[in-house]
Amino acid sequence: MKKGWFGVLAAIFVITMVIVELASPFAQAADTYTVSITKPGEKVTKANFKGYEFHEKCETATGKTIKLRFYSDKPLKEDKAYRLMIQDNEMVIQTKELSDVKLVSSK
């Protein structure tokens, strides 16, 4: 009898976790920016992260220019333009190098 209740509770827990994950999509916790890298990132080594920290002017999807601090696990090339998806925790989760060099930081 106890094993049956344990199985039912485990199934309810799994179903609840699936519903919670589907109710909070990953993309809502990230924003897309266009940035032109003007200087190399500073190397950063923390407990769970090895990568680069950048301080750059970025353009939002609405065209507003803002200064952001963000972290990337890969080096971003200087004098190149990128479209970045940055999470709320300032981590870059997606990078696309743009062939049309749009100097966002010169605006």
From TrEMBL:
It comes from the Bacteria. Keywords: Signal. Residues 1-29 form the signal peptide. The keyword Signal applies. InterPro entries: DUF1093, YxeA-like_sf. Transmembrane segments: none annotated. This is YxeA family protein. It comes from Listeria fleischmannii 1991. The lineage of its organism: Bacteria, Bacillati, Bacillota, Bacilli, Bacillales.
